[in-house]
């Protein structure tokens, strides 16, 4: 701690020329990496199905009566009568099946599906999802799923203990769904392209519009793009352009990106992520901790020989308090490297650094947005 304080006191008295550093190089990215096409979004699908073939780890019909009802209905549809029969197979589980229908997906292509247990099944390992229809928000069936379930977690159980690693009540069926209906798409009939930034920013949106207009002026003789707001850039279709080929050319254009300065803090895991543009104004920081140690050392008291006394226990408690830190240090972060080096040299745990960052933000010296997760 003494070394840290001497270091920052020394840095505080250095000349501004010594503390100044060259600005970080501007980051460039392709348009396809920072923006997505509004007409090319995913659509969510959902369905209800049964998983069979489990090794006694399925639903109990008393706790999950809907599993038995679903199984009887399935067998009746297959022409098998179940009237008057009672069964309690633990190799069946009811699951919810979810998937994302990618844009411009055509019938016959395959997509991955996720399955999650609805009842009291303990594991879906080794099971097979039987034919399940997947519907969209409009109620129409767009895909049918079936296949073996892949579960990453496992459970080992003995007579006295049980070991569980990961989640065993959810899994995935790679390529398990076949698309049966395509979404109504009018991409070719559109009169414009709407680019949506994944990280909304006015500066980046303006730069995208400028780059697209520079390309369009050289190719079609005039500008075609306009930044609507921090997230959307609208590109008008030139009369002589093919929309698919135009999008293929635009998405490979390189743009200089810009993002606001942020500090992201996760208090549960102690993770701290500091952006490259974060700055800290000169500020005095004092960090100290109080440690209280309680030690119990009971003493055994024996009676005198040939007496009628009994053995007794005399309690003895020692309490010690130790306070560390408490000195004031000067913290100045004109660039990311200096700020990170200063926080590391403080010598405190991540929770202490989080408290310091929150205090600096409250003092108005942190020139960035503090995001707490």
Automatic annotation (TrEMBL):
This is Flagellar P-ring protein. The keyword Amino-acid biosynthesis does not apply. Keywords: Bacterial flagellum, Cell projection, Cilium, Flagellum, Periplasm, Signal. Belongs to the FlgI family. It is found in: Bacterial flagellum basal body. InterPro entries: Flag_FlgI (IPR001782). Pfam families: FlgI (PF02119). It comes from the Bacteria. The basal body constitutes a major portion of the flagellar organelle and consists of four rings (L,P,S, and M) mounted on a central rod. GO terms for biological process: bacterial-type flagellum-dependent cell motility. The gene is flgI. Its main location: other. The lineage of its organism: Bacteria, Pseudomonadati, Pseudomonadota, Alphaproteobacteria, Hyphomicrobiales. GO terms for cellular component: bacterial-type flagellum basal body, distal rod, P ring; outer membrane-bounded periplasmic space. GO terms for molecular function: structural molecule activity. Assembles around the rod to form the L-ring and probably protects the motor/basal body from shearing forces during rotation. NCBIfam families: PRK05303.1 (NF003676). It comes from Rhizobium mesoamericanum STM3625.
